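Fold it.
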Amino acid sequence: MKLNKLLAGIPCEVIGNADLDITGVAYDSREVQSGNLFFCIEGYQSDGHAYAPKAVQAGAVCLVVRHKLDLAVTQVVAEDSRKAMSLIAAAFYGRPAEKLRMIGVTGTSGKTSTTYMIKSMLEATGAKVGLIGTVHTVIGDKVRPSDRTTPESPDLQKLLAEMVDAGLDTAVMEVSSHSLYLDRVYGIPFAGGVFTNLSQDHLDFHGDFEHYFLAKSILFRHCAKAAVNVDDAYGRRMRDYVAGELCTYGCSPEAQVRAEDIRLHTDGSEFTLRMGEKSWPVALHMPGKFMIYNALAAFAVCTMLGEEAEALLRGLGKVHYIPGRVENLDTRGRDFSIVLDYCHKPEPLESVLKMIQGYAKGRVVCIFGCGGNRDAAKRPLMGRIAEEHADFCIVTSDNPRFEDPYAIIEEIEAGMKKDNHIVVEDRRAAIRYAIEHAQPGDVILLAGKGHEDYQEIRGVHYPFDEKVVVREIFDELDK
């Protein structure tokens, strides 16, 4: 594709030949091929301009820069290189988002579950739906693990183009606050958007709640229709940032789509879904009131897109399992339970523990830690919540990354005042300890890892899938 066509409508200055043929786009110099355009993006840990010579050596014929470099190659000086990267990538891949019904889900918690529900609900109407999120990218019958919640814009546009080529008509995706602030989804026209909730997370990146909230709000300036959780304090505020049509959901009487007559069970819930003068009985196959909110969010945005309620509810009824979300593991007939959940933030941890408290016949045992090089302020909060809502806690390691695991644990313990916990830094050993000391009726919560199949230590991803770990421990004990 010609460079001048890729740059149409983008504020920039071209230094050199604008009639170049561009064979591909890249933002990682290690992936540059002959004829590519290379984006020099200024990051928080490195500056892409420093890798421009390597990109040119690898065959890049054009650079997108913030300032001219002393290199004999065509350069595009962009006013905003991140926005330019998103728009150029979209143009290179044929603007795939304009050929799909785009649905974005943002919020601190519930994004993954809500996107899975939306996918199933819309497929029940006959739609062909792709999914992009924390756990997987799903394009037709192809399922790939995801590296991040929302891909960088060139990667995202490539995935959307693959969806178009595969004959899909809808894409539902998780939209992180990072991706909104860093313009990964800039220029994408969203037909629908969902706001789930806002609680403490990512303050290491955003600085404070206000900037975290404002990053989330960016999505709703670019949505034709938006479903917002009116039971959440930040959701009530988010209503003022919605540029398109608004629908509120929740359990409170003011919600336009709401749940009534809620009956919570150990393996799901029942409730009456009400929208205006209409109501439907719903049996949800996943436990927890938070799952009801996710179902309401999915239903609200799908009905806003014109889909029939009955078909949507049939699709919801097919959702029995979401990887790493309140997932019950096989204990091989033992008289205790193990629940795996991705709750690695204060509010989700509290929600899951409260849910387990509601049905546990024995003790609630919580195994948890906190990730390194992330929001450290939440660590004592996680400790306080765990000791308050669990009968016994095992504080362990999560993904320490480049931090000392014991230093992270000490910060968690700073919030713990009760004498109902021990420290077992090795996560496998912590899980084995809980299993070996389980009492009849206990529910052991493995909190924080969820669907992840690795543990990140000093920049290395070591295999660590808790479903596999639990099976291996049972294999050892059953010998």
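Residues 289-304 form the longest helix (16 residues).
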